[in-house]
Amino acid sequence: MTKADLVEEVTALGDLTRRDSDVIVEAIFGAMVSALRQDDKIEIRGFGSFRTRQRKPRIGRNPKSGERVHVPAKRVPFFKPSKELRDQVNQSEPSAYVLPLPAAF
Question: Three-class SS of residue 23?
Answer without folding.
Answer: helix
